[in-house]
């Protein structure tokens, strides 16, 4: 019994086996190029034959002089490598030999030219996309990202859409018949617009949209149709025959709502202009009313009486203030006079107390017994002196 290996041990063993196998280190394989893409400095693509594919990579393609694309029939030379983190096997291409276009691509070109001659892709055969579609039919997978991306956009603005989803497979053997059935079913619903969409995918995944029966169906339905296959680089025949080609489901949703955005902006502009005109009119009438009111007020007796009352009241207040000022001023003056008078009275009283009697030779006399009849003496006041003489008592 073989020893049980871990995942890492097995991957290392497998890498070692590839490295030491002389055939796998120098393989030469022919096939049709599909899923071509550039990533950093590398080219990734796959070679296809019928339903079988093998992945390939050209590392640092700037070092080579390769010129090929999807649909080319080529022969590659290189060695097998194993990416253990994704468990994928690639041919690391060293050399490429171009052999022309693949049979499948040539079949595509033949079918495309056939429809061109029939006028299926002519602009005058395309139906006009409604400016304001509200009833929408969508043919896509109900499990993919396409329906989510589409609904996210249309639900972000106008919210009165009626959306009818017909879920289908968008790749595989039964996809074509399901898509045709869905388109025919929704075409009978009297809708404004149909959207045929799917999320991004490889070039090979788009093959169903190149089927002749599907192209015939799209051309014959009466409802305008937008294709949004989700592949910006490669056009399918469904894109060519549809009435409008959108690059992604999000782009298709923007086609649906674009005029709703525009009409919303126009309504806002009209509203702003109306609002501006109304405000200007209101300002004009307000100014006119203000002037008329002013003129009327000048002639209104009640306003004049009220004005005179105010003037009289102000005059009375002025007179009262003047009287109060005069009274206050005289009161202050009287107070000052009274203060001066009181001061003088106090001085007089003091002076009264300062009277002395002296003899002619300035000796103080303190008693009447010091004086005889006919004696002369003087009375000394604060402001001067007078002479006197004792006379006989009566």
Task: Compile the SSE list and pairings.
Layout: H1 7-20, E1 27-39, E2 42-49, E3 52-58, E4 72-83, E5 88-101, H2 103-118, E6 135-140, H3 145-154, E7 162-167, H4 175-187, E8 193-197, H5 212-220, E9 225-228, H6 237-241, E10 244-245, H7 249-299, H8 301-353, E11 356-359, E12 376-381, E13 384-389
Helix pairs in contact: 3-7, 4-5
Can you walk through the features of this model?
This protein has 394 residues and is an alpha/beta fold. 43% of the residues lie in helices and 24% in strands. It contains eight helices and 13 strands. The chain has helices at 7-20, 103-118, 145-154, 175-187, 212-220, 237-241, 249-299, 301-353; strands spanning 27-39, 42-49, 52-58, 72-83, 88-101, 135-140, 162-167, 193-197, 225-228, 244-245, 356-359, 376-381, 384-389. The strands form three sheets. It has a five-stranded mixed barrel. It has a five-stranded parallel β-sheet with strand order 7-6-8-9-10, with helices on both faces. α3 packs parallel to α7 (249-299) and α4 packs parallel to α5 (212-220). The longest helix has 53 residues, at 301-353. The chain is elongated. The protein starts with 6 loop residues before the first helix and ends in a 5-residue tail after the last strand. The mean pLDDT is 83.
């Amino acid at each position: 019994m073989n020893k049980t290996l871990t995942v890492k041990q097995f991957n290392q063993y497998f890498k070692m086996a590839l490295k030491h196998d002389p055939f796998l280190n120098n393989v030469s394989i022919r096939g049709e190029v599909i899923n071509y893409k550039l990533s950093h400095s590398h080219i990734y693509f796959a070679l296809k034959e019928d339903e079988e594919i093998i992945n390939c990579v050209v590392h640092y393609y700037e070092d080579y002089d390769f010129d090929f694309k999807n649909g080319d029939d080529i022969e590659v030379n290189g060695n097998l490598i194993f990416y253990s983190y994704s468990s994928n096997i690639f041919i690391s291409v060293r050399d490429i030999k171009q052999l022309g276009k693949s049979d499948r691509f040539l079949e595509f070109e033949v079918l495309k030219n056939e429809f061109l001659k029939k006028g299926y892709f002519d602009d005058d055969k395309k139906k006009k996309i409604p400016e304001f579609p509200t009833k929408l039919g969508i043919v896509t997978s109900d499990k993919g990202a396409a329906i989510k991306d589409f609904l996210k956009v249309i639900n972000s603005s106008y919210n009165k859409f009626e959306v009818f989803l017909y879920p289908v497979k968008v790749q595989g053997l039964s996809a074509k018949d399901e898509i045709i059935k869905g388109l025919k079913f929704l075409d009978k619903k009297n809708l404004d617009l149909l959207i045929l969409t799917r999320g991004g995918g490889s070039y090979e995944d788009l093959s169903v949209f190149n089927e002749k029966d599907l192209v015939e169906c799209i051309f014959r339905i009466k409802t305008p149709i937008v294709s949004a296959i989700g592949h910006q680089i490669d056009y399918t025949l469904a894109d060519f025959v549809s009435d409008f080609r959108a690059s992604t489901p999000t782009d298709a949703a923007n086609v649906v709502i674009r005029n709703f955005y525009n009409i919303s902006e126009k309504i806002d502009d009209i509203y702003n202009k109306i609002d501006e005109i109304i405000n200007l009119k209101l300002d004009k009438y307000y100014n006119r009313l203000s002037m008329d009111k002013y003129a009327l007020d000048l002639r209104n007796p009640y306003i004049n009486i009220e004005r005179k009352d105010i003037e009289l009241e102000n005059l009375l207040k002025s007179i009262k203030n003047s009287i109060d000022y005069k009274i206050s001023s005289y009161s202050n003056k009287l107070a000052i006079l009274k203060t001066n008078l009181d001061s003088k009275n106090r001085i007089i009283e003091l002076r009264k107390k300062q009277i002395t009697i002296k003899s002619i030779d300035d000796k103080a006399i303190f008693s009447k017994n010091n004086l005889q009849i006919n004696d002369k003496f003087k009375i000394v006041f604060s402001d001067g002196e007078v002479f006197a003489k004792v006379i006989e008592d009566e």
